Amino acid sequence: MMPSSRSQLPGLAQRAERLRSSAIRELLHLTERADVVSLAGGLPDAASFPAEALREAADRVLRERPRVALQYGPTEGIAPLREWVAASLRKQGMDFTPAQVLITSGSQQGLDLLGKVLIDPGSPVLVERPSYLGALQAFALYGPRLVGIEADDDGPLPEQLAAALPGARMAYLQPRFSNPAGRSIAPRRADALAAQLAASSAWLVEDDPYGELWFDTPPEPGLIARGVAQGVHLGTFSKVLAPGLRLAWVAGPQVLIDKLAQAKQAADLQTASFNQWVLLQALQAGVIEHGLPQLRQIYRTRRDAMLQALANHMPAGVSWTRPAGGLFVWLTLPAGMDAANLLPQAVARGVAYVPGATFNVGAAAPNTLRLSFSNVEATILQDAVARLGALLSQALELEQTGATPAPSLLRTT
Fold first, then answer.
1. Any idea what the Cα angle at residue 310 is, between residues 308 and 316, rounded to 5°?
2. How do the domains of the chain map onto residue ranges?
């Protein structure tokens, strides 16, 4: 018989406070409606998935190595895939060996494992404002004291990082094309931040899911490549190949990788052997190398369409980032506007976004929101931005005049 009261579930209420549903995942349910264009999720373009190449890779794996591919494998991941990751990271200035690479079931698992190993209740954990929601969710389960670090167009502010670093357990940063802001850390800023972190006792968690999705020129290396020895680098195949494979990695000092592997044994024993061998076959066939130029062009075209639509349709007082890669644009509305309150009205007009407060630690940022251009065709995207601009213009006009909104503006279904 199921328990019927909170008293029969000791500790569950406290744990539930740390378990928060992803606002983005909740919006994905909402935007299954055919009449709503979702600019909320960061889903990769499904038409770009190399389905035929992956089918051929799977067929070859099942022909040539079915016994090993369908069997249990090492917790750390299959050796040749770890070798591929280490070689890729060396090209980016990070001197990791294959033994210092752990293959994970998506980068979200990597974040969770890092939380398990590095965070004690009350540990100060520094995160950029705004920061990736999935990281905030993963870390929150372990009871840290999250500390928000303000950022500008060049990245986190060095003076704020310096003030927060003493006693901090971890600093979580996205150096290239961040989610949600679409920003990259400028080279001189990266040098300053790397020097501060290298001189501290905090672990750097460097998350880089979008680094290969640059539009014009390759981005600068991150912070670990600038001399931060006590740092781990997270990467993923989800954005450059297919998220359904659930394959990513953590690379870092051996002592930490060993602890993460122990934590992973308790979580899922290992990442799926078959998926790893199929991925390796695809990598050896050059699937990612050959597909990246087209993928960059797809996202560049949509980025350009979104930026042009924003310039054409946003009212005065709205500003936005201009990402050089990745999948996101970050909007700042005039002070006093609340993106969360406006969301039902936007959905009623057939467009959805993610309110920015979801991504922030510390001071509220109700007048911000995130848009994604990754999974919407350019012409549809432009129309959706135009509808959003019309809503914001109307809401801003009503706020400035003090008028009462018309019933149609408040329609939520």
1. 130
2. 16-48+290-396, 51-285
